[in-house]
Design goal:
95% helix; mainly alpha
Length: 400
């Protein structure tokens, strides 16, 4: 192998070394880029882990929110149950109070009915008494209408008494008889008005019985006095009876007023109870409306939370799928790049082994060539020195 071939080989080896250095720099750049990609992927993984931790924290917050909603739901349910129990207890108490009031009112009404039952006979007796009083008043009026004519007749008769004194003894006997007939005459007093004209005709026709007429007049006067006394006594008794009845009526009116007061109180209590029932029903309606609004708000809140959670889960699932696709693509790309780098490294390692072998050969050739060159140079130097020494000796000899 001559020097030119060695120089060409060295040049080629130097080119191969430069190309290998360039390939190594490219590999280092690719490794640096791959390290940057791996670092970026690590940051992305850390970011995704942070997002996953945030998602887990949000999920924990959602669980806490769900727990809080459950607690609120339980508290609302417990409050509703407690309010319902209180309402039922109040209803039971009010029902007991109403039952007691109904029982009391029943007793009062029974007493009022008993009083009314006692009042009905009294009313009937009062009506019958009023009828009797009207009849008596009518009889009194009729008697009062009969008394003036009788008085006039008696006065006429008394003027003739002086003429009939001789018949006084007979009159006394007749008076005794008439006293026995007084009761019958009293009962027949109402018919006397129609009989008096007949008596007058009889008196006019029969002057023989003037003494009997005088006796009749005395008897009538006594009967009148007796009748007036009886009427006075009857009036007094009637007044006393009316006073008693008035007292009874006053007591009955007082009892009736008390009963009416109780009825008014009962009506007032009934109105209050009805108002209380209306208030309770209105309160129940408001409570039902509030409970319905709370349940509706709770349902809307739960639906909103579920919708947010569902949207969050869908978003996280989409992002996770996207991240998984990106990761899979990047891992596949990185795997392909690593495979290509691995193949390139294997190729470079193979080329490097060849280059090392070539460099070793070149180094040995260079050493051999250098040794040969050094030996040739030494030999040439020795030859030159010998030639110079010979030249010097020849020059010295020529100069002599």
């Amino acid at each position: 192998m001559d020097l030119a071939q060695l120089e060409q080989m060295v040049t080629w080896l130097d080119q191969q070394r430069r190309r290998a250095d360039q390939d190594l720099r490219q590999l280092e750049q690719q490794l640096t880029h791959q390290a940057g990609v791996i670092e970026e992927q690590s940051r992305r993984i850390q970011q995704l882990e942070g997002e996953l931790a945030s998602a887990r924290a949000q999920l924990a917050e959602y669980n806490a929110l769900q727990q809080a909603l459950d607690n609120i739901r339980k508290e609302v349910r417990a409050s509703i149950e407690r309010i319902e129990e209180e309402r039922l207890a109040r209803e039971r108490d009010q029902e007991r109070l109403r039952a007691a009031e109904r029982e009391k009112w029943g007793r009062d009404i029974a007493e009022l009915r008993k009083m009314l039952e006692r009042i009905h006979p009294l009313e009937e007796a009062i009506e019958s008494r009023k009828v009797e009083e009207r009849r008596l008043n009518e009889a009194i009026l009729q008697l009062r209408e009969l008394i003036p004519p009788i008085d006039r007749r008696v006065e006429d008769v008394t003027r003739t008494v002086t003429l009939l004194k001789e018949q006084r003894s007979q009159d006394h006997r007749r008076i005794g008889q008439l006293q026995g007939e007084t009761v019958e005459l009293f009962r027949r007093l109402e018919a006397l008005a129609g009989k008096l004209p007949l008596l007058e005709e009889k008196i006019q026709r029969q002057e023989k019985i003037i003494q009997s007429v005088q006796e009749l007049a005395e008897s009538l006067k006594q009967s009148e006095q007796t009748f007036l006394e009886e009427v006075r006594q009857a009036e007094l008794g009637r007044q006393q009876t009316m006073a008693l009845w008035e007292k009874s009526f006053e007591r009955m009116e007082a009892q009736l007023a008390e009963a009416l007061g109780k009825l008014e109180a009962f009506q007032l209590q009934y109105d209050k109870a009805a108002q209380a029932v209306a208030d309770i029903e209105r309160w129940q309606t408001e409570l039902r409306r509030d409970v319905h609004e709370i349940r509706e708000a709770q349902r809307l809140a739960e639906e909103h939370v579920r919708r947010q959670v569902r949207e969050f889960e869908e978003e996280m699932e989409k992002r996770w799928k996207k991240v998984q696709l990106e990761w899979n693509y990047k891992w596949e790309e990185q795997t392909r790049q690593l495979e290509s780098l691995k193949q390139l490294l294997e190729t470079l390692q193979q080329q490097l082994g060849v280059h090392v072998q070539l460099l070793d050969i070149l180094w040995r050739l260079q050493e051999e060539w250098g040794s040969q060159q050094l030996a040739e140079a030494q030999r040439l130097l020795q030859l030159i020195e010998e030639t110079a020494s010979k030249w010097n000796r020849a020059s010295k000899e020529l100069s002599r």
